[in-house]
Amino acid sequence: WNSVEKIEKSKNSQLAREIEVALPKELDREKQINLVREYVKENFVKVGMCADIALHDKNDGNPHCHILLTMRPLNEDKTWGAKSKKEYILDRNGEKVKLKNGNYKTRKINTIDWNEQDKAEEWRKSWADITNKYLEENSIQEKVDHRSYQRQGIEQIPTIHLGVSATQMEKKGIATEKGELNRAIRKSNRLIKEIRAQIGNLKEWIAGLLAAWETAPRKPQPPKSPNLAN
Hints:
Blueprint: H1 2-7, E1 16-22, H2 29-43, E2 51-56, E3 64-70, E4 84-88, E5 106-110, H3 118-137, H4 149-152, H5 163-171, H6 177-215
Antiparallel strand pairs: 1-3, 2-3, 4-5
Helix pairs in contact: 2-3
């Protein structure tokens, strides 16, 4: 990281990118470390990044890992590569466009695609895929999914992340704002689940009525669906 600070000359340079991942509690420590290392090698080291990983586990049910990544690729000769390069803008005749101050018109071209927005989705999906591979290899049925409930088609409200401070307070019996919100969300999700079950039962009952009407001797009108009060 001292080398990173030396190569970045601009006062507002970004020195690193941090990614934080939640580790599956079902895996032991050795497998958690192997999981993180495989993920880091496949997604970051392979394309030229250096990765600094730190696992945190305070036995509070929240084992996780911080991954600190370099913003520049590291070349084989141990020098830092460029984040971007300048490219001359050419006119219709293929000639460089000259500005009034005598310089030629240029544009900045990124040499790496690590800052593209779709990379976040790619890295999230890769974490889910590799984690599920480890869970399956260890005969663990639980799976993780990087997509939101909405994208998965699950009618459920997601809870929010408590964080270390709120988690410790909740364990001591001290109610926190985040904790109260999660309890309200869980209560709402139970209610949603009950309503969906009632709707399912209602649909089955109506389908049974219609099926009975189809096989019964013809009547002037089919049975009416129950109203909301019923």
